[in-house]
Give the backbone structure.
Amino acid sequence: MITGTGVTKTYRQRGGMLAGRDVPALRGIDFAVPRGGAVSFIGESGCGKTTLGRIVAGLETYDSGEIVIDGTPMSPLSPKRRQPFFRRIQLIHQDPYSALNPTRTIQQTLTAPLELRARHTKRPGSWVDDRAEELLSLVGIDPGYVLGRYPHQLSGGMRQRVVIARALTVDPEMLVADESVSMIDVSMRLSILALLRDLRERLDIGLLFITHDIATARYIGDDSELYVLYRGQVVERGPTETVISAPVHPYTQSLLSATPVLHGLERPGEERVVPTEALDERQGDSGCLFARRCPFRTDRCDGERPSLVHGLDVSHEHACYHPRPRGVIPVEAVA
Ligand SMILES: Nc1ncnc2c1ncn2[C@@H]1O[C@H](COP(=O)(O)OP(=O)(O)O)[C@@H](O)[C@H]1O
Ligand SMILES: [Mg+2]
């Protein structure tokens, strides 16, 4: 079980329009991924998804709040003592092209971490090759075909499978998949998503699935939870199907409006959601973070930041003063 409470992270900007300013990437995020469970974080570019994924995988520090892994809070531990905890959480990058060393065969890529593992767990040397083959089969590729090859000889989808096999060499408890299918050919995306779902079922591995594409969140498991992130704050959260089929936050509704696969959900005659203003990071931080773009904003939204609360359904939370089911509208119709 991995939990986060009030996790915050602020970056001081070095260059660009915001040079010298502190930009909050995460503003107090609470989440929990149970053992073998699946949680998706969605939101548009810059909302803090990668920062969260890197913090959960131990690759980035946090300013305040706490990450607790199997009951142990991480911040009191020295970096060295944290390591074995974070090793159980493996990050799968979005780019399978840069994730593998181009000068190593797939066999070399897998045996290096497996040899360490064998020494650690006092297994015989012969275990290493067997395990490499086993892991490749597990991720759905023929070991005979890939073991002797170099990354450039493989397709993007196959590379991503190798990256996943490498992450499995340390027997992780959870995978963090950060936009793991966004750079892969569309035709192969579904099969990689199916693989992640399959690994959850077969190995009881937890999944933190990060995506800007709300439609892909549906594929990682019927029992998954969806968190909608907006400018570093969770604005809606609940069972994935509930949030997708009956969102109540205008931001979630606008995201769904831009998702062509959900055209069928349009309900004529209902209040429609259309984002009214482009994202502007320089805008003030008092009040609701979405207020400037929100067609339903009132004075209250400008004055005070809404926090995450639940409605009648306690599993479905939102941070909005005007939560309501509204019809979604396909983006083509907006233009
Ligand atoms: N290393 C960094 N230095 C400065 N700012 C950063 C850094 N990483 C991320 N940020 C900023 O933090 C915010 C969240 O970024 P990120 O977590 O990458 O979002 P996402 O993955 O959702 O696109 C953005 O405003 C981004 O510019
Ligand atoms: Mg990112």
Q: What stands out?
A: The pocket of adenosine-5'-diphosphate (ligand 1) is lined by residues 11, 13, 23, 25, 43, 45-51 (CB under 6 Å). The two ends are 44 Å apart (CA to CA). Residues 106-165 form one domain.
